[in-house]
Design brief:
The chain contains seven helices and two strands, in the order αααααββαα. It is mostly helical. A two-stranded antiparallel sheet has the order 1-2. The longest helix has 26 residues.
Length: about 170
């Protein structure tokens, strides 16, 4: 089962973070070619009560590393959320990729049945089995933030398609 939990998490996060990095590169090129301040895209949001692009990318990275760390039974690395440029976001994604690439399938032994406890933004704790945490919480949260990042940029005129979103698989 460790191989299944590993395969359902690490490679998926790697693929989608690679796609997100490529989408950000296209956004940066778009801004440069059109003399648009990078901050206009980095602070763009779909609606006033939603996170801006920068925060969407930060949260996507947080879910990728947090889910993998919890499933592998290791400490979740912390991040300061200080990114203010496309270069900073690329570095955040690369740091996340380096962390999850450093995990091996053996660390996911018993991940499906491991007790996962989270406190998502509130003092109220949530308890999951590892399998439920991955499939019903971690992956949907991650995909929401990656998709929203894509949607913000597409909405702001960056020429993107599904192939960009999907990354290399």
């Amino acid at each position: 089962m460790s191989q299944v939990m590993y395969q359902a998490s690490v490679p998926v996060f790697k693929q989608m973070l690679g796609g997100l990095s490529d989408v950000l590169a296209k956004a940066e090129a778009h801004a440069s070619a059109r003399n648009i301040e990078a901050a206009a895209l980095l602070q763009a949001r779909l609606f006033p009560d939603m996170f801006a692009l920068t925060k969407q990318v930060q949260v996507a990275c947080d879910f990728a590393k947090g889910v993998c760390a919890r499933l592998a039974g290791v400490e979740v690395p912390s991040a300061e959320d200080t990114e203010q440029s496309f270069a900073d976001l690329h570095a955040r994604i690369q740091k996340t990729l380096s962390f999850i690439e450093g995990l091996d399938a053996g660390q996911f032994e018993s991940a499906a049945t491991r007790d996962i406890v989270t406190r998502p933004g509130t003092p109220k704790e949530r308890r999951f089995s590892g399998q439920d945490y991955l499939l019903h919480y971690g992956l949907p949260q991650f995909f929401f933030h990656v998709t929203t990042s894509y949607a913000i940029l597409r909405h702001n005129g960056v020429e993107l398609g599904k192939k960009d979103y999907m990354g290399v698989y």
